[in-house]
Input
Amino acid sequence: METPDLSPPDSGKRFFSHWRTIFRRVLFFGSVGIVNLAAILWLADLFWRMGFQKAHFPLLVVFIVLNGLLVLGSFHAIFGAWDMLTGRRRSVRITKLADGKTGPLTKRHAVVMPVYNEDSVKVCARIEAIYRSIEATGQLDSFDFFILSDTRDLDLWVQEEVSWTNLCRRLGGFGRIYYRRRKSNENRKAGNIGDFVRTWGGGYESMLVLDADSLMDGADIVKMARVMEDYPQLGILQTPPKLIRGSSVFTRLQQFAMRVYGPLFIRGLNYWQLGGGSYWGHNALIRLKPFSEFCELPALPGREPFGGRILSHDFVEAALMVAEGWEVWLAWDIEGTYEEAPPTLVDHLIRDRRWMQGNLQHLWLIFARKLPFPTRAHLFMGIMAYLGSPLWFLFLLLGTWIAWDRYSSSLSQLPFESYVHRWFGFDGVEQSLVLTAFIFLLLFLPKILAVSRAILVPSVRRSFGGMLSILTGAFLETLVSMLLAPAIMAAHTVMVLSIFLGRAVGWNTQNRETDGTSWSDAIRFHAFPTLLGVAWTAIAVNISPVFAAWMSPILLGLLLSAPVSVWTSRSRHGKALARHKILSTPEELNPPEVIRLVDEASAAVDPALDASAANRRGVVAAVVDPYVNGVHVSLLDHAELSPTEEALAERCLAFGPSGLSKNELTEILYLAPAMLMMHRAVWLRSVENIHSVWTQAVESYRRRLEQTPPSEPN
Output
C-alpha cells in the first residue's frame, strides 16, 4: 500500500520567491548582527581602558545577549517603519490573494473555540457575534461552529449546555453550532484541539482556532478562508489580534501600547519571516489535513517542568508545519481580530508563569533536526522573552559589583589607551555616555517612530482622538511601563528559578475580570521586589549618590511595585482615564460592528431555560429543572442503570451533591437513567426522604409562581 503524499501541492508559483526571502533575512539579521557587534566592541574597549576586572568578563557576555535582544526588537520597528513608508502596494501581503474576489466559498471551514471553566454566557455571546457577522457576508453555509469544553467545574458544565441550547434555539443553529465536553482533559488545550481534529476534522478544509476571549469580524474570516482556498501551500494563516474591553489602568496601558506600537513590530516581523511565520495559538486559520498529519505533539523526555506534555504547543505546531514544507503567514492587514487581556499585573504574571514553562520547554527543540532558520529564530525569541529578565537582573548585579569594587578601591584612572580614544578622541566618560545614549535610543526609537506615525497619518491620528490624546497616552504608558519593568524582571527571575528547581505549573482558569488587586495580595505577591529594592537602594547609596541616581529608575520600580500594581489594577482609575480619552484606542472610541454585536448579544440567556438561578444552579438545576434536565439528558448516551449506579444515585438524593466526591458526582452526571430517576424522585418523593437541597430547589418554583403577577383577563 502506497503512503499518501502530504507535502504541499505545487501550484506552479510561490507567493514570494525563495531568493528574495533569503535576501530579506540576510539584510535584517545582518543589520542586527553588525549593530550589536559594534556595541560589543565599544563596551569591550571601555573595559580595556578601565582595566579588565573579573566581573567584566561575565558582564560582557551578558551584554552580548541583552543588547542583541534589544537591537533585534528595535530593528523590527525600524524595518516595520520602512515597510510602511514604501507603501501598502509594495508590502508583502498574503491576503491580496483574496482582493476583489466574490462568490461562494468552495470548501467547508470550522470555527472552534476551546473553553475551560469560562463564563458560558459570554462565550456564547462571542460565538453569536461571529455567527451573525459571517451571516451578514452571505457565506454562513460554508462554516460550522464548535464549542469544545474542557470545563472541570460541574456547575459550569451544566450552564454551558444550557447557554449552548438557548444560543442554537435563538439563532436556528442546531446542526451548525455544536457543543462537546471531554470526559478527560488530557494534554489541556492541545489535547482538546487534537480531539476535535481526529473526530471531526476530516469534514473541513480548515479550522479557525479561537480562545474563549477571542472575537473576529465575519468579513475578515471569509477573506482568510478565500486565501486558504486560493493558495494550496498555505498551512496556517495567523492574524495579529488587538486587545479590547480593558477597564483597569493595566489593561488600558496594554491596549494602547499594542495598538500604537504594535503595527510597526508586526510589519517588521512580516518583513523577514514571510512564509516561515509562527502560530500564536488563537485567531488563526489552520489547514486541517497537514495539521492532523504532522502536528501531533509527542511528550518530551522526563517529567515537568521541562519534560512531559508541551505547554506552548502553538510555536511547535507551526515549526512542524514549516519543516514539512507548508507555509505559515502572518496576515498583518486583517483588522477585525480581537482578544482580551488579564486585568491586573498579578494576573498577567500568573499567566506568564504558565507561558514561561511552555517556552522554556522549547530548549529541547531549538536544535532539533530539519527545522528551518526562521523556525529556530521564533523558538529562540520565545525562550529569550523570559530568560531575558534573569539575564537583565544578572547584568545589574554585576554592574553593582563593579561599581562597588571601583569606588571602594578608589579607581579613577583609565590606564590604557583605547581604539575609541585614538579614532574618535573620546575620553572614558564620553565613551560611556555615547554607549548609554545608544542604548536609550534603541529603547525609545520604536516608541518615537510609532508615535510619529500615529500623529502624522491623519486617519490614524483621528482614530485615537487627536494628537494630544496620543502624546498624553504615550507619555503615561512610557512612565508606568518603566515603573512596572523592574517588578516584572524580579517576578520572571523568581519564576525561572522555580522552573529550573523543578516546580511545574498547573492549569488554571485565566481571570478576565476583576475589581482590582487588594493591598494584602499586592504586598504578599510583590514582597520580594520590594525587599530587594530596599536592600539595593541602601547598597547604591553607600556606593555613591551618582550611582544611586543612575540606578533610580530600577530602584523606584522595585520599591513601588506593590503601590503601582494596586493603582494599575483599579477599574475606577481606568474609567477616569477613559472619560478624558487618555489611553483610548480606535476600537473604544468607535467600536466596530462585531464588537457592537457582542454588546447586543442575548441569545444564550432565556429565563425559561436557566441553570444559574438561586437554589437551582448548575448540577441542582440538571436534576430538578425539567427543561435543564431534558437538555442535559439529551446530550448523554443511554444505557441500563446498574445496581451500583442506582445506589450512587440514591446516595445523591439522600445526602445532596456535597455528599458525593467530585468523581462520583461526575459519574452520575454522565448517566442518563440516573439523571431521569433523580429528576422524578425530587418531584414525587416526600420531603423527608430527600436532601433539603432538592426540596429547596423545588420550593423555589412555587415562590416564583407566587411572585409572578396574574395576567389580565381578555
Notes: The chain has 28 helices and twelve strands. The mean pLDDT is 90.
